[in-house]
Structures are given as C-alpha cells and as structure tokens.
Amino acid sequence: MSRTAAPEWTQIDLTSRRGSWGQRVTAGLLVASGVIGFALSFTALSEWWWELALLGFGCLLIVLLGIGLWINAGVSAGETVTLKESGARVDLPVVSAFETTDEAVRYQLQLRLPETAGGQADGREFVVHACGYHRCVEAARAAPHSVLPVLLDAKSRTWGVIHGSNAS
User: Fold this and answer.
1) Among the four residues 1, 25, 89, 111, which has the most C-beta atoms within 10 Å?
2) Are 144 and 95 in contact (CB under 8 A)?
3) Which residues have a Cβ under 8 Å from the Cβ of 42 and sit 6 or more positions away?
4) Which residues pair with 152 in a beta bridge?
5) Are 9 and 158 a contacting pair, CB within 8 Å?
6) How many CB atoms lie within 10 A of CB 152?
C-alpha cells in the first residue's frame, strides 16, 4: 500500500471561443487606451516631471492589465480545448452545498467523482466548485438531489463545470 497522496484534481474554467475573443478585444482596447492616453498627454505634461511620472505609471498599469487579460484569455481557451479533446461529459451528483458570504448569490458545491475517475472503488473522492451561475445555484438549492454537467479527464485529473454554451 502506497503512502503517497493521490494528486489533486485541477478545475478548468471553461471558456467559449466567443468569450475568449471578447476578453482579447477588451485587452486590446485597454492596451491601446494606455498607450494613446500617455502619448496624447505627454506634450501637455512635459513641463511637470512628477505629473508625467504619475501619468506614466497609471498608463503602464492599464497596459499591464490589458496584457494580463490577453494572456489569461489564451491560457483559458487552450485549457478548454485540451479538456474538450481529452475529457468526457458526465453528470456529477451534488453531495452538499452552502451559500458563501459574498455580495452576489454564490454557493460552494461538493461534487462526487465517479468511482472509475478517482481510482477509488468506494467513491469517496470529491471536488469543490464555487459559483454564482444560475444552473449552479439551482443545483445547490436542490442538493443532495441534483447533478451538474461536467467535462472530466481522469487521466490528467482535470475537470470543468459546463456553464451554458461553453461546452460546444
């Protein structure tokens, strides 16, 4: 009997192509506004170095946020494509759920993995999904008599809840 713990499951936030392109368009607009804002204000503020430095810092921050959003969109889209190619759609039962203290209605749902996915014959392996999407809220309120559709890849131990059309 091995004393090493089984590797953890990794949740993937499934992103549709349209969602990924929307994030990239927003990222491009952020980067452009930061660069253009600095360029247009440079001549007006060139006499006061400290105001120019503050403006440059603010514009640089906007550009960095845009670059981060662009990179995140690419990573999420790549992970989604990989999971769609290697995973299978399954319905996981919601074992328990509780509402989190947040400004929006959000729940943490405990989902039971299928016995064949976790490698355990007793079906005692679970994953946790925190969400405020309407399908997840309905499933949380109906727990333990509800299921959620999930893409699951037991080989790479990755999974992602299917929200709306992001599984197409």
Assistant:
1) 111
2) yes
3) 52
4) 88, 159
5) yes
6) 21
